[in-house]
């Protein structure tokens, strides 16, 4: 599980400020808006400063299934790290707020140039993905585990 509350907390102070100065800008999170859609090009990511965003999965013929809700200091979007750089899920704003939006190509170039920054970014993303997968596993067990339904005995 991620040991830091935010990607920015996981970075050395000088790297943190450089990353913000060179790769980020603040954007509004507008209630009801789609931040990204499943299947779209993953060329950026966000750190939520305020508001809430639901991560969802497209279900043909039905309403999108909400996988997780993210809030303050959470990293929104990790598909930019992995080829083919396509969003695996979607994201919709459910409480208005603001986020820092990062250009993925700029961040990748900075990580290649600065090994300390690169290690910190990729380590944080890996820990966050692992924590979210564990959380998803736990939710699935709550929904579909042996205690969730009638016994077949």
Structure description:
It is built from 3 helices and 6 strands. The chain is of the alpha+beta class and 153 residues long. Strands 1, 2, 3, 4, 5 and 6 form a 6-stranded antiparallel sheet that branches. Strand 3 and strand 4 form a beta hairpin. The protein is globular, with a radius of gyration of 17 Å. The mean pLDDT is 90.
Mean pLDDT: 90
**Number of beta strands:** 6
The rounded distance between the terminal residues' Cα atoms is 37 Å
Please state the CA-atom Rg, rounded to the nearest Å.
17 Å
Instruction: Quickly count the helices.
Output: 3
Proportion of strand residues? 25-35%
Name the helicity range: 25-40%
Keywords:
single chain; 153 residues; alpha+beta; 3 helices
